[in-house]
Each structure stands twice: as C-alpha cells, then as structure tokens.
Structures
1.
Amino acid sequence: MNIKAVVWDVDDTLFDYTTADRAGMSDHLAAEGLLDGYESVEQALRRWRDLTDQQWARYAAGGLDWEATRRDRVRDFLEEPLSDRAADAWFDRYIAHYERAWTLFPDVLPILDALAATHRHAVLSNSTIRVQDHKLRVLGVRDRFEAVLCAAELGVHKPAAKAFHAACQALELSPCQVAYVGDHPEIDGRGAADAGLLSVWIDRGGVHATVDLPAGPHRIATLAELPSILGSDTRFGAPSTFG
C-alpha cells in the first residue's frame, strides 16, 4: 500500500460542526424569541437537525437546488409560508450566530502539520463549494488542500463511488493511492471502502460506539491514530483506542 494523498470530510471531521451548530442555533433562537415554543433548547435543535436531514434527502434525490431546500427547511421549522427573501434573511441571521462558534478540532492542525511533507490533501464534502470553501478560509486551513470538491457542484454525493472517484481524479491518483477520512460510518466509512479507497472512520468521543463497524473502514477515535494507518514515519501516530 502506497498512500499518496488524504481526502477529508469537513463537518465533524475537521470542523466541530455539532458544537458550532448547537451554540449558533441556540443563540439564534433566543435572539429570534423562538425558544418559548419548545420544552428545551435540545428539543428545538432536534427539530432543526431532523429537518436538515429531510431536506438533504430531498436535495440528494435530485430535482431541487441547494438554496430551495435550505429555504424550505426554514419554512418548515417556522411553519410559515415565507418568501424566498424572508427565508434567506432568517437563515443569514442564523449563519451569523453559527459562524461565531466555528472552530477546528484540537487534533486537526497537528495532523495536517505532521502529514504536510508526506501526503497531498483534498476535501470531499456533501455540501457546496461556496459553503465549504468559505468555512475552510475562515478556519485558516484552505491553503492546506489542493482541491475542495462538493456534492452540489459534482452532481453526485457520498456514498456514491463516483463522488470518491472524482476526488481521486482531481488529484490524478488511483483510489488505491488515496485515503479518505470522515465521521459517518456509512456515508464516509463504507462509501470510501466500497469505492476502493483506504477508508478511515473517525468516531470522536465514541458517538457511534454501539454501531457495528462496517466492512472495510479503519475505526479511530482521534486523528493522532491516522499516521500509523497510513504507514507514515511521522513519529506522531498513536495506538488505536478501539483495538
């Protein structure tokens, strides 16, 4: 095995999306005076996340653009027939709160530094270039990646093999020369393995501790474990906490 490049998922892999989303939406709902309609912040967040998943499924099925599903998510959450302009304005106010909570996981910069001289790097995300390119720039790591590929522009999304192969093609490497690191056991873990990449599934904090390991992916709890899987002599690796 000669892995020449690492392709990365972004949300909840490099970027602490879950924490930022919770903090941003909590602040936004409080500012909008919407928390009184829920028993708790967590209940409101669960509804927002459920609607996010539903609208993503609609987008992935085709026929709707990214902005249309985002606006419908806002309308469904508020249960109001907002105009496009009003839905966009509401979402923009949420984004302002959300961006203030953006942060990388603590193990991200050390691993990017450790692998900088030995591996090329790119991003593959089930999002849009506009969203993820901006996010990576705000977080100060956009220049670490040769390419940023997203489902909205590719016209295909993970776990489809074509999405992973598009990232390999952008790097002019075969799948067997590329590792993929992501946080979702099926979309990232199984998807990358089925596409022929070296698949690394990061399960931070044991969030998916009860999930059976899909066939193929290497399961890690921290990015400090990645060099040993890549076979890199970075003196940075750590033994797996999952065994």
2.
Amino acid sequence: MSTKVEKRILVNVPVSTAYNQWTQFEEFPHFMGGVKSVKQTSDDRLEWVAEIAGVRRQWTAKVLEQIPDRKVAWAATEGATNAGAVEFEDVGGGQTSLRLTLEYDPEGIVEKVGDKLNVVDRQAEADLHRFKEFIEDEGYASGAWRGSVNEGASVGTPGVEDAGASRGDSGKAGISGKVAAAAGVAAVAGAAAAMKAGSKDSSETRDAASPGAPVTAEPVPIQHVPANSVTSTTSDLGAGGDATVGGADRAPGHPFDQTNGLVDFEGESDGTAEGEIRSAAKRREEPGPGPIPPLGGTAER
C-alpha cells in the first residue's frame, strides 16, 4: 500500500530564484536530509542514492514534465518506487509558494514501521524548511537550467502507478529491509539481554548489601605492647637509624617516665615530677630551691 505526502512552504525569494535553485538537482544533499547523492545523467534522468531510517535506497527517476518557474514532475523507472511533483507559484512581493507532493511504496519491515511513524512525512517537511533557509540565506540561485521537458503534456501529479516499472524492485539497497530488520531485532534482543543481566547484577548487589542481612565480624584481640618493645626514638630515625620492635638493647623506661623511655632517657629525667615536664637544661638555667628534700629531713643549700 502506497503512502502520500503533501507539504507546502512560503519562500521569501522570487519564483525564478526558487525554481532555478531547485533545478540544481545535484546540490540536493546540501539541504535534503538522508540524500547521499543525486546524479543527472541527462535532461530527464536522475540517479538517486538516499538513506532514511538506516535503510539505503537507490533509484533512477525520469522527469515526466518540467516547466520553468512552474513545475517539475518525476517517477521512478527502477529501484525504490516513488513519484511526485514540485510546483512553484508566484504569490507577489518577491515570495514563492512551493508545494511538494510525493507518493511512495514502503519496502520491507523497517520502511513499513518507519511509514507508520511518519518518518518520510517529517523528513519532507524538514527538507523544505532547509531549502527555504538555504535559498533565503544566499538570496540567489547557485545555478539554473531553464529548459523544458514535455511542456504541455499535462501529466498532472504523478503517483506510484506512474512508477510501475520500479514496483517489486529491491531498490538496489545497500542494506535490504529484511537484513536491516534482522539487525534491528538482534540489536533490540541484545539490549534486552544486557538490561536483564544488569538488572540481575543490581538485584544481587542490593541483596548482598541489604540492611536486613546480618553482618558478622570476628573480634580483633587487643595486643598489649610491652614497655620495652619500642627501641628507637625519633632522634634515632632522624639520624638514619631503623626502628625495631622487640629489641632488648634498651632499658625499660624510668618508673616516673610515662613514655616508656621515648623521652628523657639520656639523663633528661632526674626522677622528679618537674623533670618530666621541663628539660634538665631548662631547669639549670633558672635557679631554684634545690632538689626535693628527703623524707624526715631538709635539703642542704
């Protein structure tokens, strides 16, 4: 079953400018989305290559009627089945009304799905808007062909019946509809499998990290460090010495020394409380009452 598309747009250039630009068929890829190339082999023959919705199509079109500043009509003779016309109308004020009519036969699963989604309809509308921007930005046509083809033949607006010779043709597709559909199905299936696997992994991760699941941990025994287990001071390390644990070459810390020998080991502590908070050198600088007297007596001055 064929599909018909009709679109109209107002272009802010004179009719001759709009028409002249349209006759530059080989420049269609500049503003027609999906059109890869157009080659004009004669005044009335065009070879097209297009790719729409991931499906590549080729066809040869015959210009059935061409009237300067008024109309270009065509129909496919081989390849993708399509036919149509572009009509130009001078509406005054340097403006042109351009009307596009296109009828085509969708081929294969992918094109039929695209047809249901109005892909070609939206593409045709976008192409006309790009043509409008293209010609209005330039303000003049990049070229012109003012010749006529079958002028006065009054072929009207060609439809797919006029492209009967191309019906049943595969469209010389680089990727056939069936192959593209199979690839699409495979891609969807692969994506679904990946989503399923990802969902499963996420579920397992959530289960493993669920707050409802009891978490047990083995208690870590507290290890007491003997008073004589640390054998190197910061000054030793600063001089390039190595810190060792468990060495027996150091005596235990002084009973008054709460650091187990890490400070005041080399004569800095004299066994007094004051000696533990002030260095011997500092205490020597300041005269004091002398050492703490022994029990039951007084200190001699």
3.
Amino acid sequence: MKFAMPILMAGLLSACTSSTDPDVKHHFIEDGQPHPLVILLGGSEGGNTLAQPHFKPLMDSFHKHGMSVASLAYYGTPGTPQRQISLPLDDIASRISKLAEHPGINKNCIAVYGFSKGAELALLLASHFEHINHAVAVMPSHVSWNAVKTLSSEPGWQLNGSPLPYVNAPLLSWHMQKGVVTGSYTPAFSAALDRADTKTLNAARIPVEKTNGPVLLVSARQDEIWPSYYMAQELIASLKKADFSYPYQHIELSGGHYSFNRDVQDQVNQFLASTLVNECQ
C-alpha cells in the first residue's frame, strides 16, 4: 500500500494542460455588424481545450444563431498562470472587456459559458462584473472551491486583490483518493459541503442573484465529479429567494458529468438566442 499513495497522488495532480494551446481563440462573425459575444471557459484540466479543432462544430453552432464566440483560457497556457491558485477575477474580466472592444462585437451583450470548474468561474464573473450580463453554467457550483491539483489548501480565486473564501475539498482525503480508483469524486465534494459550517458556506457562496442578466444552469443527477445537481438547486434557491428579475432556467440531465450532448447544446443555444440575441441591445 505504501507504493499506492504516490501513484494516486500522481493521478490527482496530473493536468491535461497544453503549452501549445492559445490563450484565446476568436471565432467572430465577420459581416460588418456588431454581434453578441459568448465566452467559453473550460474545466479544471486547464489549457484551452475548447479551442482545439474537434470543438469547431460547437463554435459554429453559435454563429447559426447570430452570436460570435471566443474560447478563453484562464490557466495552463503560455500567457496565463500555470496553476489555478488565487486567479484574479479582475484580470479575467478585463481580458473579456478587451475582446468586446472588437468592432464586430456588441459590448452590451456578453455571455460567459463555463463547464464544470469553468462554470464556477462563469458564475463568479457574472456575479461580480456588470459588463458580463448573461451566464451559462454547465455542471455548476454554488460556492467557490479550493484551487485544483494542489496538495495544500489554497484559494482558487481572488477579487480586488483579496482571496475569495472557499469550501475546502482536500486532495489528501480518503474520499478524493478513492475517487481515483472508483472514478467518482462526488463523495469528496459532498463530504466537504457537509463538513463546512454555516459561516464558511455563506462566505464561499457565489452571489448569483447579483448577475446583471439571464442565467442558465445545466446539471446532472448522476454527476460523478461533483454534486452539480444539488449545487444547481442551491443556485436556483438563491435566485428565487432574491426574486431575481431576469429569466433563469435549470436543465436537469439524468446522466453523469459528461452527459452533455448536442441536444442539450441546442437548448442552450435557444436560451441564448432568446435572451442574448433577441432581447439584449
């Protein structure tokens, strides 16, 4: 068993980042007219996975509905931090603002669209920056978590120079290590939520109700990575409690973390076409 620990830890710490991935990949509609912009944010693997060629059909799908799109890396590429530790939300929001300065973009209509860890980031950005006024979060979280792939407990994000409070799901925990073998990490995150006291949970909660526009959540009832269905329900509860004035929707999938498919993407595009393209000016 003494040899198992290094193997498990190597698996947990390994990152699928790529030094050849671009920091950002533009896929704008070039017709001389300003269009809404959708910013894609990948998961905890880092790099810019969504910029890779096999995701071009995803990018193309936005054009069909009149939306320009860009895939944005937030760590693990040459021009971004190499680790997801205390990443400044301000810097990421500023990069999005610069993309919106393109003459082919309607800077009043900006959506962030994140997957998993990127969904956590998308909701944080939409909650804290007014120029980001639509949020799509696929397999989301209702709280900020510790930085991924670190042995010590570190904050994942910072805002205005201060680390954001977070719920800690330790890498060196039985549940997390067991997940390497079973393929299910949800028990580790559920245990962390159960262990956290009310003060911690309230401090780490993402203030989704402060979003300056519509919110779409997609979660999975059988999520094996983290409890996205439960966390999406918590987000919806926050919106209801605040009597949120913008449209919001929760798409519930019966499968697991990777059950997102083309049909679900079509639903996302319909939501964005209605709220980002037709309503946003």
